[in-house]
Design brief:
Keywords: Receptor. By secondary structure, the protein is mostly helical. It has eight helices and no strands.
Length: 248
């Protein structure tokens, strides 16, 4: 049987053949390797780029609209350093947005590739079910390999169950990564354009009122970042609980 065929091989009559029955299907599932297809790095990179962009937004706000530095920070000069770094980031907002867009694109590609691999494993899982059923159908009370057939069928069931559970948990992680992208789209397409409208007139006569609004929008971006970080933390917890693939 070649990978991708719908039919399964006839169950062998000898012990060695029974013990290795459906090995090709198990190997095909191993090549799909869903356990390692969803990396946390692209999602973390997107959050990091958005944090840089958020710092830049804070850096270009008028001083009275910016969060006030603490006494210790002012005494040590840390507030001056922070302000300089923020203003430097503010000058790079365009570059930072491009970098964030690239990180979002990489995350979207990672999710799409993961879903493609999951879909590719479905036919092999179906054939594994058929193979286990075929083993049980050939069991007879007077069969010398009665127990061996049942053990092999149970092993195939275990491989399938482990693979399916792992894929289901990874699907949840993929959904969490999509939630991260949704938060980013809200910042990118809604909050950032609105913030720019308010921040542009900060030197005008009505700039004070606009600056307060811009600061409020910047705070909304901070809330989105917190939500993204919390989502990634849940994903890390789910990843730690994911079962290991069963060896053949």
């Amino acid at each position: 049987m070649s990978p991708g065929d719908d039919a399964i091989d006839t169950v062998p009559a000898d012990a060695a053949g029974i013990a290795a029955y459906a090995d090709a299907i198990v190997a095909e599932l191993a090549t799909v390797d869903v356990a390692d297809t969803l990396d946390a790095a692209p999602a973390a990179a997107l959050v990091a780029r958005l944090r840089d962009l958020h710092s830049a937004m804070r850096g270009v706000l008028p001083a009275r609209a910016r969060p006030r530095a603490g006494l210790f920070a002012r005494l040590t000069g840390r507030d001056v350093v922070d302000q300089h770094e923020a203003e430097t980031l503010g000058a790079r907002m365009g570059v930072l947005l491009i970098e964030a867009d690239r990180a979002a694109a990489a995350l979207r590609a990672d999710i799409a590739a993961h879903r493609s691999r999951l879909a590719a494993s479905t036919p092999a899982l179906d054939r594994l079910d058929q193979a286990a059923a075929a083993l049980r159908e050939t069991v007879a009370d007077d069969d010398a390999h009665h127990d061996l057939r049942l053990r092999r069928a149970q092993h195939l069931d275990t491989v399938r169950a482990t693979h399916t559970l792992s894929a289901r948990q990874l699907q949840l992680i993929a959904e969490q990564h999509e939630a991260v992208l949704a938060h980013y789209r809200n910042v990118r397409d809604v909050l950032l354009p609105l913030w720019r409208q308010r921040a542009v007139g900060e030197q005008a006569a009505q700039g004070a009122a606009h600056a307060v609004t811009a600061a409020d929008i910047e705070a909304d971006v901070a809330h989105e970042l917190d939500a993204m970080t919390a989502t990634l933390a849940r994903g890390a917890f789910d990843r730690a609980d994911r079962p290991k693939e069963t060896d053949t």
